Amino acid sequence: MLSHRRTFVAGAVASLLPLPLGAQAARHVLRLQTRQIDVNGKAATRYGIAQSSGAYGLTLDEGDEFNVRLENGLSVPSGIHWHGLTPPWRQDGVPWISAPPIPARGSADYRFPAKPAGTRWMHSHFGLQEQDLLAAPLIIRETAAIASGVQEVVVMFEDFSWTPPQEILAGLRRPKPMVMPMGRGAGGGGMSMGKPDLNDVTFDAFLANDRTLADPAVFDVERGAQVRLRLINGSASSNFVVDLGALDGTLVTVDGNPVTPRPVRRFPLAIAQRADFIVRIPPDAAAALPILAVCEGRALRTGFLLRPRGAAVVKVSETAEAAAPALTLADEKALRAAVPLSSRRVDRSVPVDLIGDMAAYTWGLQVHGMGGAPVTVDRGERVELVMRNTTMMSHPMHLHGHNFQVTEIDGEKIAGAVRDCVLVTPMATVKVVFDADNPGLWPFHCHNLYHMAAGMFTTVVYRGFS
Ligand SMILES: [Cu+2]
What is the average per-residue pLDDT within 350-357? Predict the structure, then answer.
């Protein structure tokens, strides 16, 4: 089984070498390193997370152990979070909270059951390193997906700027007049009062497996066959609308967790969210089929191609005909968990207000009305988080160590999706519930990297945990 694993990252199909039997057999080495990528003809030096085979990211099978030595080959400290997995809290990979940062040239070991299965990902939780592409897919292939024999295509979308992230953040936090014209460049996104603000940062490019549409990843597929797309929004600060183009797709999971299958052609993918789609390749396709991700509020997009045998590769423009609309919660409301949480009453309901001062670029969370307070829970409780967005920006809210179920959106009760990251749109109220079954100290934050850096971060803490 191990010898037949394949990853579909960066346009390459890499077969892993068979691993020797024995105690070390299941240990994977992941190395943080710098690398060069090509962005529209210009070389960029960024970070990456590679296996010894050179493949980016990690693919395991359901039931495997997550047995990883993480080597920091960078000249700076780091820490990698296993986004969507539910490890013991000390192995969650968040510097200063789960464990000390991994020093330059240092390493750390992780060993816990690789669960839950599904499309997860990994990314730096240290400073602004995520914007420098220190992120990769982390796929725990479901037993049913393996048994199905359906080809899988793993693609991670990212946002890219030629401006260093520290400069982007400094630009955002620089005092500015109340109304600013929209402009290009770091921090050039205008902020105005009263209407939703879509993008803080005007990115120079969007990437799919490190590539732009000028030179996209191309995956060979079989005519008439099904393909499972595992799509990851690994952006620091960009929400996308995924467009399956001519293909009819069936949404089967969000954030790696199964939903009642739903036919879709377009689907919102907020920062840090994932979605799996099953598509069927038309038997008669003459040209390769583009799968696109358009940034909300912009016409700039990225994507990749599925190429049926013998089909021509087509050129797809990086610019869509029109800007993508702002993400809404319409699709979220329609999602239903295929494996919902058990039915029980809520033991503890916690109000969490999402607050911000757009002009000053400060963001925050108020728990029970108190800025800086944690969400305190007891083990065994069913906990409800009532997230009320008081700002005119959307916030992809992520809880570590747990998956929650969306139960109410703007007063409408639903048996919604099980997720680890839900978008709370401007002025919306979203309720989620989770079972407090993983004692520890867990980050709970907005996954927009710049919002988090500007204060939109708290923790869920179990009383008496150790
Ligand atoms: Cu936010």
Answer: 97
When divided into structural domains, the chain yields a total of 3
> Quick one: pLDDT band at residue 2, thresholds 50, 70, 90?
very low
- % of the chain with per-residue pLDDT over 90: 86
Q: How is the beta sheet containing 249-254 ordered, strand by strand?
A: 205-208, 151-160, 226-233, 274-280, 249-254, 257-264
Q: Which of 126, 142, 158 is the last residue of a domain?
A: 142
- Are 256 and 388 part of one and the same domain? no
Q: Which residue has the tokens 């069927």?
A: 280
Ligand 1 centroid to 74 CA: how many Å?
28
**Structural domain includes residue 172:** no
Could you tell me the pTM of the whole model? 0.91
Q: What is the CATH number of the domain that holds 413?
A: 2.60.40.420
At 196, the pLDDT band (50, 70, 90 cuts) reads confident
What is the whole-number distance in angstroms between the Cα of residue 287 and the centre of ligand 1?
39
Residue among 153, 155, 147, 85 nearest 118 (CA):
85
Distance 123 CA to ligand 1 centre (A): 17
- Quick one: average pLDDT of 445-456? 97
Ligand 1 center to 323 CA (angstroms): 21
Query: Looking at the structure, do residues 83 and 128 belong to the same domain, yes or no?
Result: yes
What is d(CA 57, CA 136) in angstroms, rounded to the nearest whole number?
Answer: 5
Residue 394 alpha carbon to ligand 1 centre in Å: 6
Q: Tell me how far the alpha carbon of residue 231 lies from the centroid of ligand 1, in angstroms.
A: 21
User: How far, in Å, from the CA of 271 to the mean position of ligand 1?
Assistant: 10
- Does residue 135 share a domain with residue 7? yes
* Domain-embedded: residue 236: yes
Return the exposure string of 44-62: e unless at least 16 CB atoms fall within 10 Å of the residue's CB, then b: bebbbbbbeeebbbbbbbb
* Domain membership of residue 78 as a residue range: 2-142
